[in-house]
């Protein structure tokens, strides 16, 4: 049995794509006879507060599904203040250093990036000729931060670029969640060994049933993080509600603004349902017609995991984010795409969708495409060859 360590900033009971991806990776490796351990912060995302069961603890170690999980102290925050966010990353980095000094580290280590500073801490202090460091790159920072308006091209940005390059250089192997990520890495280190590792879901898709409840309107649903990058608040402001209703599940920085908007305009067919578990979400999503996946701006390297999850549920997708995600939705006929940032065009696309188009047959076809092309276990088996 081969030992393998995964270092990540997100892990269940936290929610979100990053948490789900790392959990399924760890669980998949454990089922394939790897002895898996995980280092992660005390759970705090997306609330920015340590979860109740872990408050007052500096470290918590548990064995869950035969996976050893070490949860380390972090200064938790969701503040927009860059200094406080930096303190949060530094605090977890110090906890990692403390762990590295007093614990035996396996020869194979998978490091999640971003956050860049956390990945740098791991790559710098664990680098050695007889240890294989694998970098799992899910987003391209600092490029993504620049496109989101979080960074400017100054000294700090150039420093982050150097950290990014150091992380790539020290990695013996790099997993990338998109072709754009791998293209970017290859442009810096042409000979670096890379593997495309999509964020495919690992769950048994429920049976699709005909939905007879209808008021004639297309029921549009958004489920996920209500952050700045997703731009759900602007989406609520910009949609033409003549033939649709919008249902929202999730939590995040824009939650209060969205709830205030709904309160100010009670006649708008916008319904906020809050955050629910992933298992429950899969059940409730089946009652909707179309799932919308928006990004406020096109982000190079980003491919939202929702594409693969919704497709496996047989839920038609309206993609509004551009880039590689748009290409995937078009290539596999998973639904509709609208030009990123063009809300007039988005409303035009929505107006072209009617209830008759969203048939049981269409949903079954989308589900079949997902099962054939987005298979988590086949992807993981191919990945293990490189470990």
Automatic annotation (TrEMBL):
InterPro entries named among the record's database cross-references: Glyco_trans_1, Glyco_trans_4-like_N, Glycosyltransferase_grp1
Domain Glycosyltransferase subfamily 4-like N-terminal: 17-188
TM annotation in the entry: 83-102
SUPFAM superfamilies on file: UDP-Glycosyltransferase/glycogen phosphorylase (SSF53756)
Limits of the Glycosyl transferase family domain: 209-365
UniProt keyword Zinc, yes or no: no
Pfam family, one: Glycos_transf_1
Gene3D superfamilies found in the cross-reference section: Glycogen Phosphorylase B
Keywords: Membrane, Transmembrane, Transmembrane helix
Protein known as: Glycosyltransferase family 4 protein
Organism: Lacinutrix iliipiscaria
Lineage: Bacteria, Pseudomonadati, Bacteroidota, Flavobacteriia, Flavobacteriales
